[in-house]
Amino acid sequence: MTSHLAGDEPGLVVMTLRAAEDAPPSPAAKPKEVLLKLNVNGADVEVDDRFATRPLLWVLRDALGLHGTKYGCGIGQCAACTVLIDGRNTKSCQTPAERAVGTAVTTVEGASGPVVDAVRDAWHQRNVVQCGYCQPGQTLAATALLESDRSPDEAAIGRWMNGNLCRCGTYLRIRDAIGQAAETLAAGRVPERLDAVPAVEMQPLTPEEMADPVHPYIRIQQDGTVVVYSSQIEMGQGIHTGLATIVAEELDADFASVRVGNAANGAKPEGGDVYGTPAGGGFIQLSGKSSSMVGFWSSYRLVAAKARARLAAAAAEAWGVPAEEVEIDSGVVRHPNGLRAGFGELADRAARLPVPDDVRPKDPGQYKLIGRGGRLRVDTPGKILGTTRFTIDITLPGMLTAVVLHPPKFGATAARVDDSAALAEPGVTAVIPIEEGVAVVAETFDDAQRGLRALRVDWDESGAEQRSTEELLAEHRRLVESGEQAVVARQDGDVAAALSGAAQVVDATYELPYLAHAPMEPNNAVCRMSDDGILEVWTGTEGPSYERTAAAAAAGVGEDRVRIHVPYAGGSFGLHSTSGHDPVTEAVQVARALDWKYPVKLQSPREEEFKSGRYRAMAVHRVQAGADAQGRLTAFHQQIAAEPTSPNMPLAVDFLFKDGVDYMTTSGAVDGPYAVPNFKLETTNVESGLPIMVWRSVGNSHTEFARESAIDELAAAAGRDPVDFRRDLLAGNPRTLRALELAAERASWGTPLPEGRARGVACSSFLDSHSAQVTEVSLDNRNRVHIEKITFALDCGIVVDPDQVRAQVEGGLIWALGAAAWGEVVLGDGGQIVTQNFDRYPVMRMQSVPRIDVLLIDSAESPTGVGEVSVPTAAPALTNAIAALTGTRIRRLPVTKTIRVF
Ligand code: FES
Ligand code: FES
Question: Is 72 in the pocket of ligand 1 (CB under 6 A)?
Answer without folding.
Answer: yes
